[in-house]
Task: structure prediction
Amino acid sequence: MVEKEILERYWGETKKNMLIILFIWAIVSYGAALIASSLNSIVIFGFPLGYYMGAQGSIVVFVLLNLYNSVYQNKLDIKYDLAEEE
Amino acid sequence: MAKDAMDAWRAKLRKIYGIYTSVFVLFVVSLWIFESMGLDPKFIGYAFLFGTIGVYAAIGIISRTSVVAEYYVAGRKVPAVFNGMATASDWMSAASFISMAGALYLQGYDGLAFIMGWTGGYVLLAVLIAPYLRKFGQYTIPDFLESRYGGKLPRLIGIICALIVSLAYLVAQITGVGIITSRFLGLTFEIGVFVGLSGILVCSFLGGMRAVTWTQVAQYIILIVAYMIPVVAISYKHTGVPIPQVMYGQALQVIEEKQKQIKDDPKEVEVREIWKKKADELNQKIKTLPDSWTKGKYELEEQIKTLPQDDPKRKEAEKALKVYPKSPEEAKKKWTTDMKTAQGMSKPPKSYVQPPTDSKGIMNFLALTFCLMVGTAGLPHILMRFYTTPTVKEARNSAAWALFFIFLLYFTAPAYAAFARSEILTNIVGQAFTALPAWATKWAGVGLITIKDLNGDGIIQFAEIRIHADAVVLATPEIAGLPYVIAGLIAAGGLAAALSTADGLLITMSNAISHDLYYKIINPNISPSTRVKIGKALLLVVAAIGAYIASHKLAIIVELVAWAFSLAAATFFPAVVFGIWDKRMNRAGAVAGMIVGLTVTLYYLIGSRFYGLDWFGIKTIASGIFGIPANIIVALIVSRLTKAPDPELQKFVDNIRYPKGAVGAGKEE
Result:
């Protein structure tokens, strides 16, 4: 049985991690879409930035967010000794 | 499984799929050599169709099983990377593979809602759901709903939602299989469906989730190779650099510049005027129905009577009469569609990269993106995949891998669309009708591209070209001047995408009935082997129903798929996420939320599609934007007004929140 206090601290950090990730997730998709028109005036290598965020930029960030989530949570499991027995 | 055994198993899988990939590449190269030696393209098509379906069937036979844990969750032995690939091909359907790039081509910025929506959902999955479902460690989503909320009612609602969400989706995949096989092999639609279905069934019937998983991995490899080759080639042709994902910025510049010219070009304006006139005429005809219908029919019949036999005009009239609407109702439908097309063509092309400027357009874009994201994270056939990994950690990692594998295709789709559009604008617009490139003539032949000299000047104007969304991916190999073998490869890729999704859906639906409904509610006393047998029998029944509906080729199927996202988003997603993240959520809250979410979404879907219902100008496809908050608010309020869940259930929630103590791989019967 896992101690209640440990679990609460573990879950607190997990929650914080979740909120940070979803905040960035919302900014690069919805946030960027809202100001896409102004972003489009910035052109890099032929790409208008507003269009680019929707087509590729946001999904690159999604991939990185998931990678970060895996690394962070896997470490957290070990820190609180809540990882699975191998 | 012990660590050593698991490592050995991973090494074995890597080796098998490594060999498989090399054999597949060799297969394509040797077909290419045969083609240059003069092999009939028809046989190349057959080789791809029967070659790939044969492989899927072989995997099904090798992975056959009657063990419950193998049949339902592949023994929980699917390592993260492979589960990622299986999830990616389970997820990417014929729509992602063939139609998405076309939607980007046609809609410009608006189409990006699909790119963001269909990838962003995987962040929600990885962060909010996947590892916790794996820790829970049962077989289906209704399993989770019952265990978390207690009682049969949550399970029953889960079953109903799973069936509603999956059926339309399944029919669309079966239709996709029929279209691909008939287009590339000249089989009739029905035979194509039959061949495809047998490929699906051999696999899921023999080996359940285990066979489906390993086939989906094989299908992912085929579809990603098929998707990359043509677009790499066209990028090389246009820019000299074979990295389309980076180089299509140049194409975007070309598009914007050419479209600016088109806006004011007098010839283009002339053609747009013709479209406008056409739209007005049709509008007039629709207004004066049914008289206009009778009159049109009478005129054609008169022409046939009075004109001499060999007059070409008479032939035309005969043809026109053949396709003439059979009734005033049919005429209204057909003419309305035609009028909308004409209206669309009468407007100058809007900027390819600019987002919508009106608040209604922006709202719809955001709402659709949100529905697709949340819906993705609520689709039962995707959620189910996270039960199959060996550990909780790997469930988490596999959600990340899945997104990466999906990303490879989605990151490339905008390049397909941009290169195709710049090709059309530079090499077709402004050419003489007599100098059409060969690929345009070919795809015009099957109706995917329509080019008609409306103003009779012999030169092609942009407003004279109409393109079907599917043409973008299908025609790219020929635009890039690649051999026919690549077109065959594209067909094999599209088929892999459709079959893998159909497999996942089929097994989800059969499980919902056999495991969730029959075993868990009606008759819990059956033996494990009977459970699997019933599941297999139901696979056949569900497949038959799906094929029967698909054979009617209803136009609404494509729309229904989009509806599935709104429905999943407004039912499963809140119930599952609350189940993990909100300890205070109870049965009354979850059930009320799901029912209200489903009702509100269905009400708006049907109301806005058929009866002109309109809330804030939101389009039918984004109906979930009302159902999702309705579900969440109702669930929160009802749960707070009723009793907190039992201590037992609260302990259950605590337990799924951390990985330690999860059911191990290969430890169940």
